[in-house]
Write a structure and sequence with these properties.
Layout (H helix, E strand, L loop, with lengths): L8 H32 L4 H31 L10 E2 H6 L10 E5 L6 E2 L4 H16 L5 E8 L2 E8 L18 H4 L12 H10 L4 E7 L2 E9 L11
Parallel strand pairs: 2-4
Antiparallel strand pairs: 1-3, 4-5, 5-7, 6-7
Helix pairs in contact: 1-2, 2-6, 4-6
Amino acid sequence: MAKPEVINADELGHVLGLFVHDLRNPAATISANVDFLQEVGLSDAESQEALQDVKLAMGELRRGLDILAWISRWLTGQIPVEAANGDVGVFLERLERAETPVPVAVEIVPGEGLNAQGAHVAVEVVDLLLHNTRANVADPRATIRVYQRGDWVVIEVEDAGEAIAPELREQAFTLEGQRLLKGRSDGRYGRFVGLFAAAVVLDGVGGSIEADGEPGAAIFRILLRRARPSRRAPSP
């Protein structure tokens, strides 16, 4: 069969969606059986360690399937992640008390309106960026800053790794750019094309992402449009 010269994005999105659907069933079966074996208990430490490795790998597989599902929805014209408006600071300050891919410190500029469109996607995108930190930084920890800039709510994720090279920053969040990032310490490639996925998720709520910084102070900057606070209906 001849390879098509042009791949229709909508058709590709639907095919990827089928892959996600079909792969979730065996992934769930493996996870359930690993949990069962851990509950039953195995006598030797090597078996326990092997089960734990399988469990960690299944967690990564599920994360990859989630990302593939987002890209599939985006290709078919759907919103990758449904998210209501809200206060970004409220969502992100909870990360200091949550289990995150790397330790985080959250700095929120007080006294500024941080109500944003699709605010909860910030949590998903920051999670992608923290996984990027874990994979690319020798001392994997990050600082998250949240502030207002004009009509935008800005979230910066900074770590002590290599910043994306200036010549790669325009392409770093495109599908085509992922192969250029792979294998470069200043490319910051993220597993499961994580930087492209971040751009896809943000695009669904009218946001964007950019790279900045320098060696030892790498910055990813997320921009979400400010949302007007909802007004209460007047009392009858």
